[in-house]
What does this fold into?
Amino acid sequence: MRKRPALNVALIQESFKGSKDKTIRVTKEKIAKASKKGAKLVVLQELHQSEYFCQCEDTKYFDYASSFEDDIRYWSEVAKEYEVVLVTSLFEQRAIGLYHNTAVIFDSDGSIAGKYRKMHIPDDPGFYEKFYFTEGDLGFEPVDTSVGRLGVLICWDQWYPEAARVMALKGAEILIYPTAIGYLESPKDRRDELCEKENSPKERKKMLDAWIGVQRGHAIANGIPLLSVNRVGFEADKSGQIGGINFWGHSFALGSQGELLAMANEVEEVLYLTLDLDTLLEVRKIWPFLRDRRIDSYGELLLRYAK
Amino acid sequence: MRKRPALNVALIQESFKGSKDKTIRVTKEKIAKASKKGAKLVVLQELHQSEYFCQCEDTKYFDYASSFEDDIRYWSEVAKEYEVVLVTSLFEQRAIGLYHNTAVIFDSDGSIAGKYRKMHIPDDPGFYEKFYFTEGDLGFEPVDTSVGRLGVLICWDQWYPEAARVMALKGAEILIYPTAIGYLESPKDRRDELCEKENSPKERKKMLDAWIGVQRGHAIANGIPLLSVNRVGFEADKSGQIGGINFWGHSFALGSQGELLAMANEVEEVLYLTLDLDTLLEVRKIWPFLRDRRIDSYGELLLRYAK
It folds into this structure.
């Protein structure tokens, strides 16, 4: 079989610019530049058009989702203009009162290659996503594009080996995670015990390492490269309930043995890298984990708890 | 609920001593010493009574399994004498022509707390286990002991998130992996391409990191501490087919966020550490991954391939 050429990738790690208009304009400029530098696959962070509005529960933010169809048209044009496969992360209004956290993947001709609706929805202090997003109902379906078969998942999904495995079993060639994760800050006027505990340098390092570590586990267990694109910068909680979130950046790329290929810092950054997909997937011949799965004995994975 | 006292653990990483008699005598001495130092849980490496005989396929090695019942009596006495919960890894003859790679777990009174028959069986150059071991048929069942509910798995199992997850769903409080993994050496009289490639320092590091990394992923995804005990030292392949295996040691212990608690070097070593199980499992309240599993959408995990 003839090998495909190596794939040039750009991961765009950004901060929110104060308004949707300004934010998407800057993102578009970065995509233009990435395209000029040869990128054929561009991945954006979770909910990249707006601030991370899930820090509090407020119905006004549902209005952000009403432009879903316009947003699709906008990013379709961008993908087409700059001839890149583009992974976006949008707020989808499916009906009034029914919303999803949805990745729309465009091929380089601007067509919609596929959609993925976030399947695992978190709900933690500062991350009240269960208020906004209904669990996805499209399953774990990789998306065929001109650069390969992409296993796109979103943020909280990254903690679930099941999601990564199903994508791999369906022939995904890369796992891709747009994400928005960071450190909680204590409110200025009072000390919040959970925030304080989480904000010690030791705890921060442990969280960051765990975030990278669990995704590295998916890359290794499935013999598959992995891209993770995180938001960066401080965003206040407008409700004042918490002190805001410092999104920790550190977007990264792993090879199919979990080896680190590239990592961003905790600043705005576009991470460029090259993936030789055909070679990367060869590792499965040496480490044939898919060969020996005990599918006769995994039934309990479908239970909530098995004790 | 009253908290349990912290658990003192000893992980015994050894080399083969040339004969079963000598090897098990030295192991027993190490258990005695560990007990004296306060260890209540002692974990031994995979197939710790003998050389790693799976480097070649030879029916003579089936004789090693014929002493399974005697071996159980021996280690039962050791556990009882030194009052430790003991995780052993034995070669089980279930019938002539039917053998398993079996962990027998003894409680500190010498009683058998449980058995686990290795479920995932590898077969790679130098690791011809499918010739020797039939796949386990006891499922992924944690074992209740006086020190906690132990999720004992064996070596190749460590690459499978499914195994770790089922153990966690069944209430395991620690994941424990006796293992035997190392670097293949080229035969002295010829260059073996696979061995040479795998033996570059860069490839060795990548393999070691992947071995740690995939297990770290299980600890994080399940919010559970993890102990992995590996064989160490060079063992020749008596058939001359390969140049032998350098078992790489590096036994380690992780906390429930995947943080490294202790790690051995590439020499004989007993690793001591203390686990506060009740506190470690508290992390699941902050990172509630079990809460949000999409059990309605994991059905494809039971397929061999889903494309």
About this structure: The radius of gyration of chain B is 19 Å. Chain B has one domain: 7-302.
